Amino acid sequence: MKILMFGRGTIATLYGWAFAKAGHEVEFYVRPGRAAQLPSGVDLRIRDGRSRGGAVAERWPTTLREDLDADFDLIVLSVNHDQLDDAIAFLAPRVGNATVLMFGNVWEDPATVVSALPADQVVWGFPGGGGGFDGSTLRGGVVKNVFLGFCDDSNRGARYRAVHDLFERTGFSVSENQDFRSWLWFHFILDAGLLAQGLAVGGRSGLLRSRGAAREVFLLMREMIPLLKAKGGTPRLGAALVSRVPAGLLGFALRRLLSGDNMVGFLLRETERAGHMTRELGGVYARDVLADARRLGVPLPRLEALEPAFELAR
């Protein structure tokens, strides 16, 4: 399969490497002028969850391109949710017959986000990985699971099956969800709660030091669930867990995850070390959630109280 990774960010590089190792032709689209600024390869210092978190240390040569003149079977779009509008506007007239895998966070209505693309060419997914770059070195990793699902009339036919098979043949396990809109929105409020509270207490170390801070992550999420409903989502198993299990117990489990030498704790450590848990980058989730809550009239007093930790300077 001929695959284009849109951008050369963390997720694009991790999965591009995995696809290339499985024998696929992988290239990265970068902005004009960017190819000359980037090194010809990536130094990988990652954990591969497909092999029980096996360590990978290698130099991987990458192919960069600054145009979309070639034909691709698959374009993987994994950029920050606040960059999606510009990325899709650029892709729409250039996508050709390629399948487009939407592979990341979305907070707007998914159908609206991709309205400029041919609906039958869109497949929805979500990665299980993270980390960040330190110069030409990528530190992070992937877990074995990836997530695929359906949003409205997104493709359920041959294109979807081809993406599903691609991941399985690359060694990943696929978890499938019939209501991917609600799944994505729940994941977004999870990120908003974790990052807002993390910013308020000084990051991962602050969450580890304080039982109350870890508990607050889930109280923040609990108060956001009515917003998910107000936006048209359906709270499902994750929302039921957050609503019914004592927040203190969930906070205890979170601290155990963050402190252990497991993939979750490792990925969060590397993400924080790469500078992604900042007011500007990490705070965007809470800012977008709070803006929607105010627009829809859904009270979020706990999140509002943390606003000084994530709002941008005026």
From TrEMBL:
Gene3D superfamilies hit by this protein: NAD(P)-binding Rossmann-like Domain
InterPro entries the UniProt entry points to: KPR_N, NAD(P)-bd_dom_sf
Ketopantoate reductase N-terminal domain boundaries: 3-125
Protein name per UniProt: Ketopantoate reductase
Lineage of producing organism: Bacteria, Bacillati, Actinomycetota, Actinomycetes, Pseudonocardiales
